[in-house]
Design brief:
Mean pLDDT: 91
Number of helices: 2
Low-confidence stretches: none
Helix content: under 10%
Order of helices and strands: EEEHEEEEHE
Strand content: 35-45%
Strand order of the largest sheet: 2-3-7-6-5-4-8
Shape: globular
Length: 133
């Protein structure tokens, strides 16, 4: 009897672990939540909580594709989308207990033409305080 033989190859995708460098968390954008256009990072909640940012406070988010920065802004760290105005960006902890960014009632990915994969880097830090004289 002839037996068909199948060659199975498993390709390991390169992975970059999230890390903290000084006061900045750095990770990659791994998942696009297609239902809402949210971007899910690989930065775990445990690492994020080390920044000491309370709900309602602001963080600065920078996103780049390889070396090209495509987005930089401050946004609220929110428990839910209801805590920010329509069209406002937010940072939240997703169902995988990782940091995610979104726009309330909009697609963050589409608005800024951002994709997923190891070339898409995200950096988060406490928003710098603005001092008015």
């Amino acid at each position: 009897a002839d037996y068909l033989s199948y060659a199975i190859t498993i390709e390991e995708l390169s992975r970059v672990d999230a890390a903290r460098n000084g006061d900045v968390l750095e990770g990659t954008i791994d998942v696009l939540d297609v239902r809402f256009g949210s971007l899910w990072s690989n930065i775990p909640h445990a690492l994020f909580s080390g920044l000491g940012v309370d709900y309602g406070k602001r963080v600065e988010v920078a996103i780049r594709n390889d070396t090209r920065e495509v987005y930089r802004n401050t946004m609220v760290y929110a428990r839910s989308f209801a805590e920010v105005s329509m069209g406002e960006p937010l940072v939240y902890i997703n169902s995988l207990l990782c940091v995610a960014v979104a726009i309330n009632q909009g697609s963050f990915a589409a608005a800024y033409n951002i994709g997923t994969g190891t070339s898409w880097k995200i950096a988060i830090r406490k928003a710098p305080r603005i001092v008015y004289e």
